[in-house]
Every structure is written in C-alpha cells, then in structure tokens.
Design brief:
Mean pLDDT: 80
Radius of gyration: 23 Å
Number of helices: 6
Low-confidence stretches: 1-15
Distance between the termini: 37 Å
Order of helices and strands: HHHHHH
Helix content: over 70%
Number of strands: 0
Strand content: under 5%
Length: about 190
C-alpha cells in the first residue's frame, strides 16, 4: 500500500532526491573517495572502541600504547575489508562460487580474530606479567562472540557492494529493455 503523503509533490521530490543520493553514493564513481572515507571513519571508531573494551582492565597501564593497539586493530580491519571487497567478492561471489566465497570469508575472519587475540594476550602479559588465561568456557564464548560481531560487520560491508552490483545490473537491464523497445518501434 502506498503512503498517502508520498504522492504529494514535495514529499515525492524529497523521497526521490534521497533515493537518488543513496544510489549515487553506492554506485557513482565520483563518490568513490567518499565511500572509502566513510569506511575508514567507521572502522576507526570500531577499532578504538574494541581496544577500550578489550583492554579496560589495563587501560591506565597501556598509556600511549592504546593508540598503537587501535592502529593495529584498524589495520587488520582495513586489510580484511579491502581484501573482501577487491578480491573475494569479485573473484568468488560475482562468479557465483558461493561455497568458495563463504569458506575464504569465514577463514579470513577467523585468522583476523586469532591475530587480534594473540596480540591482545601478548600485550596484557607484557603489561601485567600475568600469563594469558587458559582456554575455558568463558574464553570460548568470548572468542565466538568476537567472531560473530566481526562476521556481521564484514557481511554488512559486503551487502553494500552487492547492492551496488545489483543496482548497476538493474540499470543495464532497463537500458537494454528500452533499446529493445526503441528497435521494435522503428
């Protein structure tokens, strides 16, 4: 059912302008730098937040190392994100090799989480002198939750790229249909 206010000229033009801006932001080449800046800002916030959460017990002992840790987390997220966007998606998902994409995607997230946990354990041990905790039920649940959060985060970034592919494909199909109709009329 259509929204009654959507049919008014002002609301319709605002809806179309917003829709067009979102499409342009996702698809248009001149917004490419903006998309990368948005990704960088979002991943920076996520990285700093994770460092503050993971190192909350030893935050005062970290000092300026907190910035190095946030930078490390940011680099791992950027490496995974861009590898997913520029290698995995075009190579496997666009060619409909879904099993391979899922395998490599899940494996790379596992490697990223393992790297982050190893560095976290090393830094905490170095600062406090306490050896890393043994792998118990609580640690397994924490690892699974970290993995799932990262999985959701990177799946979301994949969805925007897939939406871009879909919008581009839909536009190409529409243009082909219009050309076909023009050819039939002539």
């Amino acid at each position: 059912m259509n929204h009654p206010m959507k049919d008014t000229p002002f609301i319709s033009s605002v809806h179309t302008a917003n829709h067009s801006f979102l499409q342009n932001l996702l698809v248009a080449p001149h917004y490419r730098i903006g998309r990368h800046v948005i990704l960088l800002v979002v991943l920076s916030f996520i990285s700093f937040n994770q460092v503050l959460v993971y190192f909350s017990q030893v935050l005062d002992q970290l000092g300026n190392t907190v910035y190095l840790m946030a930078g490390f987390y940011l680099l791992t997220y950027l490496a995974m994100g861009y590898f997913n966007l520029f290698v995995l998606l075009p190579r496997f998902l666009r060619t409909k090799q879904y099993g391979r994409y899922v395998f490599w995607f899940l494996l790379l997230i596992a490697v990223m989480v393992a790297m982050q946990l190893i560095v976290e354990a090393y830094v905490k041990k170095d600062l406090t002198g306490v050896p890393p905790p043994v792998l118990n039920g609580a640690a397994v649940i924490e690892i699974i939750s970290i993995y799932m959060i990262d999985l959701i985060c990177f799946t979301g970034s994949s969805m925007t790229v897939l939406m871009k592919y879909w919008l581009t494909g839909r536009k190409e199909i529409s243009e082909m249909e219009q050309n076909h109709l023009r050819a039939e009329v002539e």
